[in-house]
Amino acid sequence: CNATGGNCFYKTYSSGMDAILEWYRFHYMNIMSQLPVIINISDHEEQIEDMVYSCQYDGEPCRPSDYIHFHHPVFGSCYTFNSQGTDPFWTATKPGAPYGLSLILKAEQKDHIPLLSTVAGVKVMIHNHNQTPFLEHEGFDIRPGIATTIGIQQDEVNRLGGNYGRCTTDGSDVNVKLLYNNSYTLQACLHSCFQHIMVRKCGCGYYYYPLPPGAEYCNYNKQPAWGHCFYQLYNRLRNHHLNCFDQCPKPCRESLYKVSTGTAKWPSTKSQDWVRQALRHQNGYNSTSNRSDIAKVTIFYKQLNYQSVNESPLLSENLLLSSMGSQWSLWFGSSVLSVVEMFELLIDTLVLCLLFCYQRLRAK
Fold it and tell me: What are its GO cellular component terms (predicted)?
């Protein structure tokens, strides 16, 4: 409800589980928004060895400098491989699973927050270089105890923009100031737009998104009614009543990835004992229960080419003139010579009329 306890926002859930998750997430954000005062999460980055037992690309072991760490509000510690795309080590030389990225992941559930997410596994997302990954919108799950193979095919979309539709090259011509230090994407613009509106309307920012300069995150100790303001605004955003979708155009050039997956049980019944033993000796793996707590994923290019989708004008100037000439000839049966003769006849008629009028004037 609002600050006076009235004008409450109601929402109906079809499942009690969904209602409990939403209730917990709301209180979780209130707690996490106060953490920067107590502890700086970025100063306590986890090492990738806590999550990845084995990493290989094109048959070569990955290096410590091949990934960057960032903290996600819901999924916790996340790692991005080849974020800049400038390292020759990550150049794809051959298609196929043996030449892709192969990972053995730690998928233990003992550290999971039970009411924050009911999914067991690892979240993976394939995205372009220097692009902010929005895992809650585009990521997919890797199931524990399963070997997942992911074949990717790149698509490149080029939009015309200008008079043919609105798009932006790098976001510099967009009125919304991006809160992410990466390249422009539609999701980054929408989240930034919503955060700016929330700071302006509610006086504080939503914990899931970065903050504008000088703002602070919402929590019920400082802003007891911030939830009422947030849910009202978010409902308007979902119903397209905010102008964020009008202010955020699509990129003029965008790389997309088509994904096809296959799964198999891993490790198999015959090999699980020696696989677990090898991981225990090499990586300090310790299985405390019988449930599956490891997963394997292989990401590779299916083909070393990409599909380009380019927008082009349906009717160009040359095609327009050609169509007009064809229609003129069809309906009037004329050609260029006929048009010139008609033009000459009009000029001759005009000159004769002028001469006739001149003679009559002189006669008078």
Answer: plasma membrane; sodium channel complex
**CATH architecture of the domain with residue range 1-10+160-251:** Orthogonal Bundle (1.10)
Closest CA to 105 of 255, 320, 261, 279: 279
> Which two tokens mark 264?
């198999």
- pLDDT > 70 in the chain, percent: 92
Strands laid side by side in the 52-57 sheet: 60-61, 52-57, 101-106, 294-310, 146-158, 253-265
Q: Computed from CA positions of residues 268, 273, 279, 282, in that sequence, does the dihedral angle turn out positive or negative? A: negative
What is the C-alpha separation between 210 and 42, in angstroms, rounded? 14
pTM over 0.85: no
User: How would CATH label the architecture of 34-152+258-314?
Assistant: Sandwich (2.60)
**Position with higher pLDDT, 168 vs 120:** 168
Q: How far apart are CA 256 and CA 237, in angstroms?
A: 25
Q: Quick one: pLDDT at residue 291? A: 52
Q: Contact, 169 vs 182, CB < 8 A?
A: no
Which two tokens mark 84?
């800049």
For the chain, what is the mean pLDDT? Answer: 86
Let me know if 299 is exposed, middle or buried by CB neighbors in 10 A (0-12, 13-18, 19+): buried
H/E segment holding residue 60: strand 60-61
pLDDT of residue 332: 67
Q: Which pairs from 163-169 meet CB under 8 Å and 24+ separation?
A: 164/311, 164/313, 165/311, 166/249, 166/250, 167/249, 167/250, 167/251, 167/252, 168/249, 168/250, 168/251, 168/252, 169/251, 169/252, 169/253
pLDDT tens profile 255-281 = 999 999 999 998 888 888 888 888 877
Domain boundaries, the chain: 1-10+160-251, 34-152+258-314, 317-363
- The runs of H, that is alpha helices, within 57-185 are 135-138
The pair of three-digit structure tokens given for residue 132, joined into one six-digit string:
């902010």
AA identity, residue 143? R
Close Cβ partners of 297 (under 8 Å, ≥ 6 residues apart) = 102, 103, 105, 122, 124, 142, 147, 148, 149, 150
